[in-house]
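Duplicate of #3305? Posting structure anyway:
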């Protein structure tokens, strides 16, 4: 019966035609995962088989699983705030349709394993807001996956289906659905500015030496993945400055010559100011610009590149 259902769904989608919802190389997998819908009342194994049935290679199977989870499971703000990971078993996550990042990672691992894809859960840390810069938590606060598609050490890849699903507000009270493909097989250097594993054996590529170094970095946003932003300067995410001092910023990116606009936004919520465009220069694959924080106070400063949030610093400016 299970395989009859899978075949019926496949025929239905072929006849219906899949809408264009992705412009990436994973367009077919993303489109299929969205068009197949929530698959309510089915167990993990049936869902895994159903969403991967059109694909023969493991990479596209993994992508379909990633896309389906990110489009159908939401971050549980209450559980994340309280550090409650009790409801993270895959079947429970499927039933509740929400979970902590650990629940996302466990569900992704289970579905991959059912499709004969080697996948592991990695526990560690991330920063949810700029207030966490230089604030090391007492316990692990995040989880993601690594999957292996070959035999060499370089055949391991990062996957973060939780961040792909959307985001929580700064106070971690409200979830906003916003699918992103950027957290599947991302640039490892960018990923490591945004994540730090408890077991450094799962630090793939260049990354922080320890918790202290990681939590000193600026807060990284989705736009940094899209642009390939690395080597942020200042490297410390908490900037102490004077209202009369010009502060130099720089970062590396994939294609700096294609960048047209860099803006900064000071503050957040009701205190957020309008984006202010800054002048910048380029050298090789690096961007440079300066800014003077004339407002005396402590506040988050978000850097936006061509409309995409890239990173946030916390600035303390005094006379």
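Output from current build:
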């Amino acid at each position: 019966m299970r395989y009859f259902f899978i075949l019926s769904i496949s025929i239905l989608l072929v006849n219906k035609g899949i809408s264009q919802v992705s412009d990436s190389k994973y367009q077919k997998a993303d489109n299929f995962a969205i068009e197949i819908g929530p698959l309510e009342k089915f167990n993990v194994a049936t869902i895994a088989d159903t969403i991967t049935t059109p694909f023969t290679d493991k990479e596209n199977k993994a992508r379909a699983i990633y896309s389906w989870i990110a489009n159908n499971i939401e971050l549980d703000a209450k559980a994340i705030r309280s550090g409650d990971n009790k409801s993270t078993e895959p079947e429970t996550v499927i039933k509740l349709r929400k979970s902590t990042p650990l629940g996302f990672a466990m569900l992704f691992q289970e579905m991959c394993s059912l499709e004969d894809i080697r996948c592991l859960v990695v526990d560690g840390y991330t920063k949810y807001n700029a207030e966490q810069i230089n604030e090391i938590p007492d316990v692990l606060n995040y989880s993601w996956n690594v999957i292996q598609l070959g035999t060499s050490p370089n055949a391991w890849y990062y996957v973060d289906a939780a961040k792909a699903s959307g985001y929580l507000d700064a106070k971690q009270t409200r979830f906003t659905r916003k699918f992103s493909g950027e957290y599947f097989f991302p640039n490892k250097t960018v990923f490591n500015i945004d994540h730090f594993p408890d077991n450094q054996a799962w630090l793939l590529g260049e990354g922080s030496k320890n918790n202290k170094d990681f939590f000193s970095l600026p807060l990284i946003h989705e736009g940094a993945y899209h642009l390939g932003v690395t080597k942020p300067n200042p490297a410390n995410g908490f900037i102490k400055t004077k209202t009369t001092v010009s502060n130099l910023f720089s970062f590396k990116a994939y294609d700096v010559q294609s960048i047209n606009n860099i803006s900064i936004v000071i503050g957040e919520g009701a205190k957020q100011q309008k984006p202010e465009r800054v002048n910048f220069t380029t050298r090789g694959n690096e961007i440079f610009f300066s800014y003077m924080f004339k407002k005396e106070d402590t506040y988050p400063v978000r850097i936006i590149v061509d409309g995409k949030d890239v990173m946030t610093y916390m600035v303390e400016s005094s006379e």
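Confirmed duplicate; merging threads. The chain has two domains: 2-217, 230-318. DSSP finds eleven helices and 18 strands in the chain.
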